[in-house]
Amino acid sequence: MTSTAVDFAAIKDKQRAGWQTGDYPRVGNTLQIIAELLVEAADVRAGQRALDVACGQGNAAIAAARRFAEATGVDYAANLLAQGRERAAAEHLDVTFTEGDAENLPVPDASFDLVLSTVGVMFAPNHQQAADELIRVTAPGGKIALSSWTPTGMVGQMFKVVGKWTPPPAGVKPAVLWGTEEHLTELFGDRVQWIALNKREYVFRYHSPEHFSEWFRQFYGPITKLAGSLSEQDRATFAAELADVPRSFNQADDGTVAARAEYLEAVGVRR
């Protein structure tokens, strides 16, 4: 039986449309601490050339620039890059933001000492091509540092809910596989020596589970786009299912949300 080739270009066009819907930085900015922890784990140094891949509004690029690295952010969503530039300017940080595809980065071979991604490159549909690009642009002896949601954590469970309403494209592996050591080994092989693989938790803090659901439906582009495509009745059901995700992970006892979401922080040396 002949398998049908996956049209990654078409998938990325749909993804881009999703990220350009809503206002993702309203969610992404709350994740800044993940980037701060990642650049510390990678031991970034002043003057190093640092690249934030699938940077969104620039969390990791900004974190690196705060430590006087020469930071660049690449993303295919122009609206997110625009907000990254605004954020960097507000902090008087020198960050270059460039439009580009994580699977075809617009930078030369071996041109960065540190290549980062915080819950970004994991969404590239062609996992192997994205991993190969991370290798290509990292100088030998440089570091690759990634933070990725895990399959079993809260965000992995949220994606399962989303997947019930809009199944992922055939032939595309789940993004949360990047949050497993096994998948990183499969993607990078012996080209990277992983020196740190640590499970961490990010705490989502919202007024209530319903507030979390509303915030994500209003601002998290792909979910905003999905919610807008549903009937009124289905939209209400989806909203309730989305609220149940942080509710099941919630550790707050005062009616608010303090829900822990597991992610894998991986730091490796490019061989």
From TrEMBL:
Residue ranges occupied by any Methyltransferase type domain in the UniProt entry: 51-145
InterPro entries: Methyltransf_11 (IPR013216), SAM-dependent_MTases_sf (IPR029063)
Annotated keywords: Methyltransferase, Transferase
Species of provenance: Kribbella flavida (strain DSM 17836 / JCM 10339 / NBRC 14399)
SUPFAM superfamilies linked: S-adenosyl-L-methionine-dependent methyltransferases
GO molecular function annotations of the record: S-adenosylmethionine-dependent methyltransferase activity
Name of one Pfam family that matches: Methyltransf_11
UniProt entry tagged with the keyword Methyltransferase: yes
Protein name (database record): Methyltransferase type 11
A single BP term in Gene Ontology: methylation
Taxonomic superkingdom: Bacteria
